Amino acid sequence: MQRNAKDTFESWLAGELLLVALLGSATALFLTNPALRNTYELPEGRLVLDTAVVLAATIVAILAGVRFSVEGRILDLLLAAGFFLAGAGTLAFSVIPVLGGEPQGAPEAWAAIGARLLAATLIALAPLVPAPRIVARTRVLLVGIAVLLGALLAVWLPLRAFDARLSLLDASGGGERVPELTIAISLLALLALLAVLGFGIRYRSRGEDLDSWLALAATLTLFAELHYVLTPRLSTHFISQGDFLRLLSYGILLVGVWRAISFAEFGRAVAEERARVAREIHDGLAQYLFAVSTHASMLETGAPLEQTLPKLKEAAAAAQQEARFAVLALSSASGSASFDAALRRYVEFLTADGELEVDVEIDPAILLAPDEQIEVFRIVQEGLANVRKHAGARRAEVWIGQRLGRRIVSVRDDGVGFDGGEAAAGQGLKNMRLRATTIEGGFELRSQPGRGTALEVVLRA
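Above: the chain sequence. Below: its structure as tokens.
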């Protein structure tokens, strides 16, 4: 496993170095050919590009927030906060101010830069945070959104107050450089570099797929910021090559975060399936094996052979039957033929001593999904076990069929019955209700003293 992880990281590192070489070569070409360092006056195109950035950053923030709500990691919280700030800042200071055709003012332009700096800081810090998980996730997300909105106001209001003293980022005519802008973009490039290194190191140590995509996106962002340094004209009327690199980095992020969420859902499904398998082994096979062990120990201590050996053989046969059904239940085969056979074999074993007669009727047109097969089998098994142990019945009926367009599982007996209000006291009944809920089915129990008991499960449509 370690070897595979090492090979994966080395492959990723080779691709990362190749990307850096290509982007570095393009940047060097820009440095040696000033004629290529052009901006293009496309107000409508710039508005479309900024809107696309807002949408992409918002989607990434939402996906990261969903991942945080599932796993509670501070990493995802910082990523959600950073990209939310980037999207909200671009929307508030670069898109909304120019919707009416007016040019972007100096306070809004500098506020957009400030929002990007805050967002880049949060994203660069994400791979450096410790691993503890947060429990109150929804509350933290809501408080975080409020804090971020407050941060945007804290950036914009002072700039608005000093409107007359601010340098215009878009010097008309010859593209005159603004030193403060160059410093701000250089800080953005430095933060992007820190993000590349942080996520790269984290990917090497943890091997999480998301880190590799974040490092890749941060690499594109780094070279986008370098292009901005070369062509420092961040205006709502102009587009440069760095803008396209920035948009491409968000596209990479969308792919990476979506893959991470898909893997998380898959991992959770695997964990749930493992828990279900463990529960089935504990509730079924382990019980029979314990009986086998108990009877074998009794033989070792000198118990009469003629009394103990039949019980040992019975427990061993039950364990074998349980193992066969476990294999059936864990397979993905559809249909109900194998399920029918397994259920009938169980009933044959249960009624072998003649103490209880059980009729089984299964409509061949009824199909049970794999998850329904195991739960329905357990419900019938538990129901018949209760009939045998507590009902004092001579006859029981198991019916799986269709009524009024709904699939029904029914177990009835002619036993002594009980007061229906006492149903909640039995653990076996609680287990059957839980199993019915697991497969999205409805559970109903009807019983009266002297008139037997009937349980019914209505399966999902």
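The first strand starts at residue 40 and ends at 41.
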